[in-house]
TrEMBL record:
Alphabetized UniProt keyword annotations: Methyltransferase, Porphyrin biosynthesis, S-adenosyl-L-methionine, Transferase
EC numbers, comma separated: 2.1.1.107
Protein name: uroporphyrinogen-III C-methyltransferase
GO BP annotations listed: methylation
Pfam family, one: TP_methylase
Organism: [Kitasatospora] papulosa
Family, similarity comment: Belongs to the precorrin methyltransferase family.
Broadest EC class assigned to this enzyme: transferase
Tetrapyrrole methylase domain location: 173-384
Annotated CDD domains: SUMT
GO MF terms held by the record: uroporphyrin-III C-methyltransferase activity
Keyword field contains S-adenosyl-L-methionine: yes
Amino acid sequence: MAEYDEHPAYPVGLRLNGRRVVIVGGGQVAQRRLPALIATGADITLVSPSATASVEAMADAGEIRWERRRYQDGDLTDTWYALVASSDAAANDAASAEAERTRTWCVRSDDAEAATAWTPATGRSEGITIAVLTTTSHGRDPRHSAAVRDAIVEGLRDGTLAAPHHRTRAPGVALVGGGPGDPDLITVRGRRLLAEADVVIADRLGPRDLLDELPPHVEVIDAAKIPYGRYMAQEAINQALIDHAKAGKSVVRLKGGDPFVFGRGMEEAQALAAEGIACTVVPGISSSISVPGAAGIPVTHRGVAHEFTVVSGHVAPEDPRSLVDWKALAQLRGTLVLLMAVDKIGAISRALIAHGKSPETPVALVQEGTTAAQRRVDATLADVGERVVAEDVRPPAVIVIGEVVGVGTGPEPAGPLDAEPLEG
């Protein structure tokens, strides 16, 4: 075993595309390291009599070659980089010795001081790779490396480490789904784009708390107060996006939930495309699944519901503008999730019952889901209209109709058990 070398390691990025890489051992270390190595385009051979299920799946997919045997001398011939990570100490020593003879850079998971290379704590953000190695007078400190890595990556992702005078993002518009309301539920990419924005055009239902974090120079426009009147509001929003983008600004259209789930995001994307303006779509967590989840309601559950349907309730069933087949929905055995339906729920419940849905079907209304003001009101399809009035339920609220409403709050509803496991 080599003595500890107090000289610092020399950082370098290996270009492994098309070059031979050998992994000795198919356990958890290989499982963690392989995805990044595969991404480099390396020609990877795994030498191990066994492997985890995930590593085996990589071999089955043709991403790596798997030689199902123990390490043998000569396995590192013509190899540029080796990762020795088996549970066999003698095999690790032998592979490490071969790497030394053949001048192959070699990482060892069981004995870092016997290796010729170390794996840094790495993270990635928008095309930037962060690699951190720390050493002390007593040796390496991987936990410190990981903590420093995490701090840097988080800073890049949320914009706190952004360099304003060296920003690489070109002018244009990002349609960002802000999630259901809790500011922590916006995506990492959405939060970073917010930090880089010159102009933010925000919906009333977007995560408002995030606006307080914006630098003073960022212009924040309330989409609900854009002029030209109620029936011109969307056209005015489109025009504001176009005007600011053409002025060379980086614009974020901050929307609640997901931009394409009842959010008119495609209308805005089409308006921008017609003007030749670059548009990035950042999906968001839809309130249709996140708000019920926050209230303890799964939209699907084994033996209870195998499907869920998300419906806009802003138009009543008897309205000629309605595009919803309420008769078909009443026949479904799964879960119905209604958005924008608080003031129409009485009419909707009557239509569902008229088309055969049981009046005793459980209903839950979750108001201001995922926020500090969240509250849940339970009802049945027969009395939900009355309950909304009696409990003064107001928008925004997500309405869940189906047996899943009782799954998290009482005994599991009776039903046949599925023979197959469900995903997730």
